[in-house]
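We store sequence with structure; for instance:
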Amino acid sequence: MLLLDIAITHIAGRTRQTLVAVLGVAVGVGFSVGMAALMQGSQDDFIEQLVNTMPHVQIKDEQRTATRQPAEDVFTAAAIYGLRPTEDPRGIINPNAAVAWLTAWMPGTLSAGLRIQGVIRYSGNEVGASIIGIEPEMERKVSSIVEDFVEGDFDTLSEGGNNIVMGRRMAERLGARLGDTVRAVSSSGGTRDFRIMGLFHTGSNARDEGEAYVLLKNAQILSQRPNAVNDIRIRLADPYAAPSVARQAEARLGYRAVAWQEANEGILEALVVRNTIMYTVVAAIMLVAGFGIFNIVSTITHEKSRDIAIMKSLGFTQGDMQWLFMMEGLAIGLTGSLLGWMLGFTLTYVLSGIEFELNAAGRDMTQLPVAWSFAHYAIAAGFAVLSSAVAGYLPARKAARLHPVDIIRGAT
């Protein structure tokens, strides 16, 4: 307590310099917390969009690698390049058995359908589209699109007939409205007329401009592939269990199963790089604040050299002197961290209340996404205290080594 009292007396004696150093740490911690909250919030919001708008696991009627070729069995030196798996118009073989097996053990729900590529035409306009044949009751359990309808209703597909629901932007590009009849043309040449019974808006351009849903049997007729299913979409109770579920499904069924993490691997890697950059910037900010602490502790050490000599003459040890000046740096760092927490909380609160309309990354945003996490405060304060400790240690080490006789004689 005596050392702490002396340390407080030292830093209080240089009020202006101490205040500048404390404010430097506070601003660094505050803006670090605000930046971390904004970047983490945007990342969490983006991942949530990925998780909610796409299947957690998707099984397609394709092989991950091409089947072994006869030449490889006959010739030991055979090497084949650029070979692609052949497309099987039958889709997934025995889809009912595959669905039953998945349902028996998988911790989630699934929907089996037929995804085909084609064109939708209306009044001289046409748009390329993914036409997805579904069973509405199964699709409702795995897709969030049910909640994104702005006109009409998803349930109209269950009424039967040649009904279709599509993205609102696709309808705008076609010049069509609810109730109009459009013509769908598949890549195999099949055509069929459908009546628009619903328009959805997810905020994702890829879906709003490029997807349309029909009954599974209608998609099979349109593509001239009776009873075919080429797409099984799975939604899990725990999205982060997707890789293990995908591996098990692919090993058993033989078809390529893609977890949402694999489908967005490049994006997730970019997020890791972004987080690394963010925390590097935080460390740089704290390093700059540390120079201010180093400067003030060094000045105090120089000015109090005779006090150091007297204290060591009275019996204070070298370790006491070192700990004294380190406490001065830590006191500035801790005070600045507490003020920085208040500033960071205020910044985060203000950012969370900003409202605007923006189309970012293909989806609509109306508010800045921020994340409230104690970890942001702990990390920022940790950097601040660490830089304060280092900034205080260097001059403290020098002060502890001073010999009282040399100081009193005026050698320093």
The chain has two domains: 2-51+267-409, 84-255.
